[in-house]
Amino acid sequence: MIRKVLIAEDHESANISVQKTLEELVIDDIAYAYYCDDALNKISQALKTGDTFDLLITDLYFEPDGNKQILSGGMDLIVAVRKVQPELKVLVFTAESRPAIIEQLRNQYDADGYVRKARNDARQLKEAIGEIAQHRRYFPRDTRQHTDKKNAYSFSDFDIRIITLLAQGVLQKDIPAHLQRNGIKPSGLSSIEKRLSQMKDALGFTKNEQLVLYCKELGAI
After folding, report:
1. What contacts 197, CB < 8 A, 6 or more positions away?
2. Rounded Cα gap, residues 85 and 6, in angstroms
3. Same domain membership, residue 93 and residue 77
4. Looking at per-residue confidence, does 67 or 8 come out higher?
5. Considering its fold, how many domains does the chain have in total?
């Protein structure tokens, strides 16, 4: 039975939406956290008092706002929570839909459920909470199909080299000099820009930062 829920979400509108869904399920013992550090602290304090949370609903990505945090996102929070309260159920509610990330949530992070923020997400939230309350995991069928197919994109050694440089903080315009020093070709800026554009188009990204994060999560860099 799910009696007490903590929502870790930095967008107020999403918080309100989840709260409404919980209230429709007659769950009214609800707490909120806009930062992952605060969420972990609430879970730790509840554990000390013996009034523990039954379910954590968390987003994956939290926008930085100048407040220094130890836990930067939902994945870090899940890892930290598992150390403090291993039996706590975790439902990920996020706009993230990449198959590789969902697979990580299911297999590496052992999340109890995943719901994508999209049309009909209130219905899926109810379904997920109902399944989790019965000690069953919830990953919608379409996401299971996608993760089973896996992402077919194959990174070349050259791809990994330039993405690694970006991850290290090297500006895109400075990458050619790094490649030239190591005798790597092609090393022209236009070639690098073209390759980055091809990768982002293939994976559905618009920013280099998204590509770097994806490769980190995938373990490619």
Report:
1. none
2. 13
3. yes
4. 8
5. 2
Ordered alpha helix ranges (H), the chain: 12-24, 36-49, 74-84, 99-107, 121-133, 141-149, 157-167, 175-181, 189-203, 208-218
> How many residues would you count in the chain?
221
CA distance 66 to 89: 30
- The answer on 214 and 119 residing in a single domain is no
Residue 149 has pLDDT above 60, yes or no: no
Cα separation of 82 and 107, whole Å?
14
- State if pTM tops 0.70: no
Residue 188 shares a structural domain with residue 122: no
- How is 159-175 classified by DSSP, letter by letter? HHHHHHHHHTT--GGGH
The three-state secondary structure class of 65 is coil
CB neighbours of 61 closer than 8 A, spacing ≥ 6? 73, 74, 94, 95, 96
Same structural domain, 197 and 126: no
176 upstream amide cis, omega within 30 of 0: no
Range of the domain at 22: 4-149
CA distance 15 to 210: 25
Give the domain CATH number at 128: 3.40.50.2300
pLDDT at residue 13 is higher than 50: yes
Q: Is the domain of 137 the same as that of 203? A: no
